[in-house]
Design a protein that fits this description.
Radius of gyration: 17 Å
Shape: globular
Mean pLDDT: 92
Number of strands: 2
Low-confidence stretches: none
Number of helices: 9
Order of helices and strands: HEEHHHHHHHH
Helix content: 55-70%
Distance between the termini: 60 Å
Number of domains: 1
């Protein structure tokens, strides 16, 4: 049976949102791409109230290519740049296959999306840490370093404050358990 392009597009996004994240790590709660992407959009819009419709769409589908590969853990992408390039190619293929024709985003717009993506990861790490998953401290610290090193926290005043607050709350929570 042949479906119209709109049906295929919507179905592809919905299936992609079911991809499980952190499948190689112990977590108390499971997270899928849909949950991650929706939370990243909330962070994007909160920190950058003038973000564009195109940025929001790009943020919503930024990991949907993982429907083709599964979630590839960030440490693998950090250690082996070729894996990241392959994942980026899969993402582009997915966008083309399902007619997600995004206009070129500026470097600033892309950095804002990366910040929202990273902040969403920090929130997930913090929530897991509060549940007792102490392994999340290392990932939390690694992502904090990335945000600082790339100056993402300085993209907006709201983002800067949000980043500082989550680090303060994480450390306060950690101090309670020492």
């Amino acid at each position: 049976m042949t479906f119209c392009p709109a049906f295929r597009k919507i179905e592809a996004a919905r299936k992609s949102y079911e991809v499980e994240r952190f499948h190689t790590e112990f977590t108390f709660r499971k997270q899928n791409l849909g949950w991650h992407s929706a939370n990243a959009v909330i962070i994007l819009e909160t920190c950058f109230p003038n973000c564009t419709k195109e940025q929001i769409l790009a943020c919503l589908i930024h990991d949907c290519g993982e429907y083709l590969s599964g979630d590839v853990p960030a440490p693998a992408k950090w250690l082996f740049p070729g894996i990241k390039e392959a994942c980026d190619s899969l993402q582009k293929h997915w966008e083309d296959e399902y007619d997600f024709l995004l206009p070129e985003l500026t470097e600033q717009e892309l950095e804002e999306i990366k910040f929202a993506d990273n902040m969403e990861l920090l929130f997930f790490c913090f929530e897991e840490y509060k549940l007792g998953n102490r392994k999340m401290r290392l990932l939390f610290e690694k992502v904090c370093s990335i945000i600082v090193d790339t100056k993402q926290r300085d993209l907006s005043e709201i983002g800067h404050d949000l980043f500082n607050d989550i680090r303060i709350h994480f450390n306060r929570w950690d101090d309670q358990w020492k």
